[in-house]
Amino acid sequence: MALKGKPRDNLTVGALYFDFDTLDTDQGNLGGRELDLYVEWMVNDHLLISPLVGFYKPERSAANGGTQLGGRDTRTYMQLLVGTFF
Q: Of 16, 19, 34, 64, which one has the fewest beta carbons inside 10 Å?
């Protein structure tokens, strides 16, 4: 599911929600839920800056047939994407 808004011409904010299901549990349970919050800022015609923060909650930890080490608590990650255009 996706939600996106454009408060200004050069700024987009959005949220993405994923509900992952494992197709082949013989390979481990990769199921979980993820929420990503992001911004796309066009600084000018040649530069894009897009930070993102994501939250992932696996269905199972590695100890219970999943792949995430250290339990099945929610994990937080961040990324920064910088793009240049010619």
A: 19
The per-residue pLDDT for 29 is: 77
How far apart CA 38 and CA 13 sit, in angstroms, is: 6
Whole-angstrom CA distances from 35 to 4, 26, 38, 44, 68 are 13, 26, 10, 28, 17
Asked whether residue 27 carries a pLDDT value surpassing 90, the answer given is no
Return the domain boundaries, the chain: 2-84
Q: Which residues contact 18 (CB under 8 A, 6 or more apart)?
A: 33, 34, 35, 36
pLDDT recorded at residue 79: 98
